[in-house]
Amino acid sequence: MKRVILLFLFVFIQTNVFFAQQIKGQFSALPNQSIKLQGFDNFDTYVIDSTQTDAAGNFTLQFTQQDYGMGLLVPEKNKSFITVLSNEDVKLKGSTTAAPESIKLTEGTQNIAFIDYVSQQPKRDQALSAWSYLQKMYATEDIFSEEKSPKKAITKEIKRIHKSEASFLKDLPEESYVKWYIPTRKLLGSVAQVAQYRTEEIPATREALREMNFADERLYKSGLLKEAIENHIWFIENSSGNLDQVFADLNTSVDIILDQLTEDNEKFNLVASKMFEVLEERSLFTSSEYLSKKLLESDDCGCLNIDLEKRLHKYGKMATGAKAQDITFTEYTYFPEGVSATKMSELKADYYLVVFAAGWCPHCTESLPKIAKMYPEFKEKNVEVILVSLDENAKDFAQFAAPFPFISTTDYQKWDGKAVADYQVFGTPSYFMLDQELTIVKKLKSVDHIKSYIDYKIKE
């Protein structure tokens, strides 16, 4: 029996060694240094293999089929270098990862193709930007309006550049990882440009983002999963127009993504949790509430893990229309002259604007002075402002909050504070509008949103 087991282990080890791929390389400027090969797993990286370069900077690292996707070569105290991990060996040579232009691939067709694209595409993009600028100029400026030949030449060159990229991608092997990875990476990297400068591409980009398959295992080995969620949400927030349309479009995307994952509980929980987190961080509360409600109401299959379910139940208690917890003012509270209270509900106000912010938060240091400037207008409508600071010490709290004309309180517990937990705060700044009974009437997204809401929804 022992012989059988030993034989099995021998065959298993030999088989895995046989099917292992290698990255052989030389970084001539990095002799006798440790170097790691890292792979991507969901939102994280993990170490696949590690070794030491020799006196000439040579190294060999191995990976197996379970690591296929994108990887990082990470030398000690140096920049990482991205690489494709597929069913082929890789050979490369250069001086250092800090000078990626020095690195040449001599083996590994997918890696060679990826490096070619990464080096060529910025030049195509620069040329397209220049030609597009000229195209608009020749179309709108009177002095060029009759120049037909240049217009045709410009249009022809723009088409040629697009065709050049399309041909490159078409020629990639059909089942290769890079054939999926390169267009996906480009799509996610394009959202800011499209939303701000190429607005005619917004509908097609939105559609392409929604067609991205979150059930595809390749996404989870790519290092792009975080961007796939964050950039999708950011793009809709910044391209859909008014807030009502933003929330409608976000909710549609939420439905599409969750529907893709109903057969995989692990991915379902992973992606749903991240979407919820991003929506909260970006103060897109209408959609985070929609997501929370959808997840809890449709969990007949028991798909939600316990931690996410508990989090959503707690969050549900802070949905619009729910009763918020009173806020007790600690001994560290700053009160305006003539004001004294032990808790928020003792204040004489028709509405309470509760703000969670901190001096270490750049958006907060930009937004809170604006609220302070508008505070007299708010008081005219009997709206009281209460700042709950997430600063961790007296010096930072004083520097941030002392100048403000409204109540500012803290417990120096940052994310572990009672009010932060009671209000299920996941990002700063966060804004809650409560009525006299401490019912949540609105979760607000920005200072402009606050002003608009108070101006048009709250009567004097």
From TrEMBL:
Gene3D superfamilies: Glutaredoxin
Thioredoxin domain ranges (all copies): 318-459
InterPro entries: Redoxin (IPR013740), Thioredoxin-like_sf (IPR036249), Thioredoxin_domain (IPR013766), Thioredoxin_ResA/DsbE_sf (IPR050553)
Residues of the signal peptide: none
Domain of life according to the entry: Bacteria
SUPFAM superfamilies: Thioredoxin-like (SSF52833)
GO terms for MF: oxidoreductase activity
Stored CDD domains: TlpA_like_family
Name of the protein described by the UniProt record: AhpC/TSA family protein
